[in-house]
Amino acid sequence: MIKKVLIANRGEIALRIIRACAEMNIATVAVYSNVDRDSLHVKLANEAYCIGTAQANQSYLDIKRIIAVAEYAQVDAIHPGYGFLAESIEFARACENSGITFIGPSSDAIQKMGNKIIAKETMSEAGVPVVPGYEGVISSAEEAHATVAEIGYPVLIKAVSGGGGKGMRIVHHERDLEKSIRQASNEALQSFGDASIYIEKYIPTARHIEVQIIADKHGNVVHLGERDCSAQRRYQKVFEEAPSPFVTPKLRQEMGEAAVKAARASDYVGVGTVEFIVSDDDASFYFMEMNTRIQVEHPVSEMVTGIDIVKNQIKIAQGDYLPWSQNDIHIEGWSLECRINAEDPEREFMPVPGQIRRYKPPFGEGIRVDSAMSTGAEISPFYDSMIAKLIVWAPTREAAIDKMQAALADFEIVGIPTTIPLHQALLAHPTVREGEVTTKFLEENLDALLDTQSEAVNE
Ligand code: ADP
Ligand code: ADP
Ligand code: MG
To answer: How far apart are CA 407 and CA 366, in angstroms?
Structure first.
């Protein structure tokens, strides 16, 4: 039984985990950097320890110090949240070696899925469709040209160790291939310490649709349906919804089965997300990657299934059996999530850290706000610029969009620019209303959206 958990994270996800633990009567230990000493996660945990200075590698990424605190505080388990050490093989291994339960999959599973080529190989062997390409590291210009000759332009160059949308380049013409490889490779080295890249077919008119899976230690795996995360900018998600307006019951079943197959192929234990790129033309779907952690957008799946994903993560980690089989999982109604960031869309979405002079979140039936902010709190330049996740649930998609619009209008954040006006403009757009968003939509319509946004502000 897990009785005490250290949360190796900060911000809204640390709070989300602390709340799940509190409901399960599990004691919590927070860790924090010196700039986070007044944060809510520090106040709400049962114990809290400062582990260093603001730079993440001096605190939230310091494996030795986090393990030392875990041992000192005598916790049974560590929850890594998302980002930071959530997908660190070394961290999962350090927990394993210290006899502390890592709330997540084994270090072997993280390793397998963290390398996107090995992940693709594992999936195609298991019969899960993968994006066409060459399933190996591209190590020479000749190899690159040969691969592209086979699959045809456009292609996407991707980092083998990639994440967070970094290290990717779309190539449309032969003449740009080698230059783009160099750029992607340099970016990959900078971001992940690994310059290796691979090439796959670029699916131009596509949706990002991902399936949430849960697997216990006893071989049971179920999926919780899909999330549509096609609204993206620079390969990063802006808002998400469950279910997907594109997915029919038949496609849901096919993608769900493929995701369960993917989990079984990697002996996966815990919660995970299997990401697919889905052609908007013929609904063919291809495995892109598997994220071996809780995801930012997990709430929309919770809202439509009634299942608390974080609590189940903890239960699985202590060896519990999944309490349902696939037939027990039902998708009800519609849920949307807007990521509200301290960013200035007018200036290339530059993060704008600073103090929130007034913070008043919306509330009411069907409205959920996952956030660690309050009046007077600071968005620190050292960490990501997310202020809050605004989540709604309603019986239908239309009603959910209306509810989100009302909730966005009620959200008061004074002192720093936010992406609220952008979300308002987005949700008013007919393409969004009609559920026709593909991964290119936001970038192609950004200027027009920003115009409507400033009109709304000036009214
Ligand atoms: P999600 O699919 O959960 O929405 P995101 O791509 O938004 O995932 O990433 C979630 C968090 O994890 C973000 O804070 C992002 O910066 C971070 N992240 C994702 N992948 C990596 C990586 N490989 N290295 C470092 N941080 C990452
Ligand atoms: P990351 O690890 O950075 O999240 P992903 O492989 O999940 O990388 O890709 C991020 C985004 O890039 C996807 O959500 C999708 O919009 C786009 N993308 C990735 N692969 C393809 C592809 N083969 N064709 C078209 N778009 C793609
Ligand atoms: Mg991804």
So the answer is: 10
Residue in 122, 337, 344 with CA at minimum distance from that of residue 227: 337
Write the pLDDT tens digit of every residue in 402-436.
Answer: 999 999 999 999 999 999 999 999 999 999 999 99
How far apart CA 93 and CA 309 sit, in angstroms, is: 23
- Which of 187, 191, 209, 235 is the best mutation target for the ligand 2 pocket, counting ligand atoms within 8 Å of the beta carbon and taking the most? 235
Atom nearest to 114 CA in ligand 1:
23
Q: Write b or e for each residue in 79-90: b if 16 or more Cβ atoms lie within 10 A of its Cβ, otherwise e.
A: bbbbbbbbbbbe
Ligand 1 atom at shortest distance from the alpha carbon of 240: 4
Q: Helix or strand or coil: residue 199?
A: strand
* Residue 297 in contact with ligand 1 by CB distance below 6 A: yes
Number of H helices, E strands in the chain: 15, 23
Q: Please tell me the distance between residue 243's alpha carbon and the centre of ligand 2 in angstroms.
A: 20
- Determine the residue type at 316: I
Determine whether the shortest distance from the Cβ of 226 to ligand 1 is under 6 A. Answer: no
**Which amino acid belongs to residue 409?**
A
Q: How many CB atoms lie within 10 A of CB 179?
A: 11
Q: Are 355 and 378 within 8 A, CB to CB?
A: yes
Mean pLDDT of 320-340: 98
| Active-site residue set | 293
pLDDT bin (cut points 50, 70, 90) of residue 453 is confident
On the question of pLDDT at 456 being above 70, the answer is: no
CA torsion sign for 110, 209, 390, 300 is negative
| Ligand 1 contacts CB of residue 341 (under 6 A) | no
Among 111, 232, 296, name the best residue to mutate to test ligand 1's pocket (greatest count of ligand atoms within 8 A of Cβ): 296
Kindly state the tokens that stand for 372.
């660690």
Q: What is the per-residue pLDDT for 295? A: 98
Task: Return the DSSP state at 320.
Answer: P
Q: pLDDT tens digit string along 209-268?
A: 999 999 999 999 999 999 999 999 999 999 999 999 999 999 999 999 999 999 999 999
Question: Residues 212, 225: contact at Cβ < 8 Å?
Answer: yes
**pTM of the predicted model, to two decimals?**
0.96
User: Are residues 86 and 80 in contact, defined by beta-carbon separation less than 8 angstroms?
Assistant: yes
Cα separation values, 345 from 123, 141, 194, 442, Å: 38, 37, 31, 12
- The answer, yes or no, to whether the previous bond of 395 is cis (omega within 30 of 0) is no
Question: CA 17, CA 29: separation in Å to the nearest integer?
Answer: 11
